[in-house]
Amino acid sequence: MSQRTLVLLKPDTVRRGLVGEVLGRFEAKGLSIVALEFRTIDGETADQHYAEHVERDFYPPLRAFVTSGPLVALVLEGDEAIEVVRALNGATDGRKAAPGTIRGDLSLSNRENLVHGSDSPESADREIKIWFPDLP
Ligand code: CMP
Question: Of all protein residues, whose CA lies closest to atom 1 belonging to ligand 1?
């Protein structure tokens, strides 16, 4: 079933010059980019996006990180896109993520883990509305 998912290439991806490498993996897999924007977000947008994490101990440094510089937000579309993107991303902690995944190959951190992908159809709907409210 074709789905849409919200993906972030977080500020570490931009800082490290890995936008092309990471975007290329999604494109090579066969997913389509249906929206894409380069932007720097404020704390309120971070709080909206990470609403389920705002009370967690790890949230203040995560908030500082995601607002620390430009990121790339995009919507990818394709068959089972939500699970496919999560598989390509790998486990949250880059130190534990399997080789072959984006985080497993390119990240050594639990926070600066390069990418975000929606974790369910409900999250994808909610997150796409936050980042791309005008996307038909
Ligand atoms: P993401 O997929 O964007 O969803 C929540 C983010 O919080 C996660 O990627 C990491 O960047 C960050 N995160 C999750 N757990 C931890 C943790 N234990 N310590 C630091 N950052 C975390």
Answer: 116
Q: How far is Cα 111 from Cα 94, in angstroms, rounded to an integer?
A: 9
Query: What separation, in Å, do the N-terminal and C-terminal C-alpha atoms of the chain show?
Result: 19
Q: Does 136 fall in a domain? A: no
Is the ipTM of this structure higher than 0.95? no
CATH number at residue 35: 3.30.70.141
Name the closest-CA residue to atom 10, ligand 1: 111
Per-position DSSP letters for 39-74, written without gaps between them: E---HHHHHHHTGGGTTSTTHHHHHHHHTSS-EEEE
Question: What are 87-123's pLDDT values in tens digits?
Answer: 999 999 999 999 999 999 999 999 999 999 999 999 9
Which domain, by its residues, includes 121? Answer: 2-131
Number of domains in the chain: 1
Q: What are phi and psi of 4, to 5 degrees?
A: -115, 145
CB-ligand 1 contact for 110 (6 Å cutoff) = yes
